[in-house]
Amino acid sequence: MTESDDALDVDRWREDLESKRAEKDEFFAEHPQSPIPPEDREAFSGLDYFDPDPDYRVTATATVHDDPEVVLMDTTAGREMRYLRTVTLEFDLVRDDPDLEDGTVELAAYQLESPNDEPYFVPFRDKTTGQQTYQGGRYMELAADRDLETGDEIVLDFNLAYTPFCAYSETFDCPLPPEENWLEIAIPAGERFESN
């Protein structure tokens, strides 16, 4: 989505979000490709989420990198994966919380080196990481309806932030968010994850 977000129907947005969450829970519980090990699926009662919060659905301004740098991301299995830093997303996160400084926040968005139509990959850590959310960080994916250009606006909805599959099973190898995407604020939106 590349339009700004002036007229959000919050009730409809919340319904859509709850529907996506129910679908994902069903996939995790029943699908053969679920990251939940087969022996644990019967006990699986659904993922844990922060309450939907439209304040964490922001409009970001894109800066597109014409000559994107290679970023090597460490993975949970100790390897490195090569990504291109293709876009920087800049947005304001305004919260009524005296402990948080309001201000502009930046996140880098990446794509794999091989040309493809994959969505932009936005891995990040924040102040909930390792406490209320997975210690390896969380991911978002952004699918624009066309190639982004500098100055374009795109909706960034942290309510869709999700836990990588490697949190549930060591058979998965997941990239870890690079330091440039470590946020100094808490983002209590999207999926929660309590480590055992």
Automatic annotation (TrEMBL):
InterPro entries: DUF1684. This is DUF1684 domain-containing protein. Residues 21-49 are annotated as: Disordered. It holds the Pfam family DUF1684. The lineage of its organism: Archaea, Methanobacteriati, Methanobacteriota, Stenosarchaea group, Halobacteria. It comes from Halosolutus amylolyticus.
